[in-house]
Amino acid sequence: MVIVYFIIKHKVEDYHKWKPVFDEDRSRREKAGCKGWQLFHSLYDPNEIFILLEWDTKEHAAKFVESEDLKKIMQKAGVVTEPEVHFFEKIEDFSL
């Protein structure tokens, strides 16, 4: 089984305003096929957010990214830039 990932990068007005909206959307992500996520922010700008999400299928991930619901949620959360989205699959896992 191939696990699909995508990373989304965007800037928000205020991380502390954005985070509760992101958290409220958890069940919608899970129902859409999301298996988990990790949140990051830039070391230089805490309002520049990176979200790494794991998905069950490429089709489910793409459908989620393209949904009108996601656009509305991002607007509500204070996303101020057009999101950058990159899809990929893991080819190696290494840790020390």
Structural features, described:
By secondary structure, the chain is α+β, with helices and mostly antiparallel strands. It contains 4 helices and 4 strands. Strands 2-3-1-4 form a 4-stranded antiparallel beta sheet. Helix 1 runs antiparallel to helix 4. The longest helix is centred in the first third of the chain and has 10 residues.
Q: Could you give a quick summary of the protein structure above?
A:
By secondary structure, the protein is of the alpha+beta class. 38% of the residues lie in helices and 31% in strands.
Largest sheet: 4 strands, antiparallel
Rg, please?
13 Å
Overall pLDDT confidence: 94
- Taken as a percent bin, the fraction of beta residues is 25-35%
Structural class determined from secondary elements:
alpha+beta
Order of helices and strands: EHHEEHHE
Contiguous runs where pLDDT drops below 50 for at least 5 residues: none
What distinguishing features does this structure have?
96 residues, alpha+beta, four-stranded antiparallel sheet, 4 helices, 38% helix, globular
Topology:
Layout: E1 4-11, H1 15-24, H2 26-32, E2 34-41, E3 48-55, H3 58-66, H4 68-77, E4 84-89
Antiparallel strand pairs: 1-3, 1-4, 2-3
Helix pairs in contact: 1-4
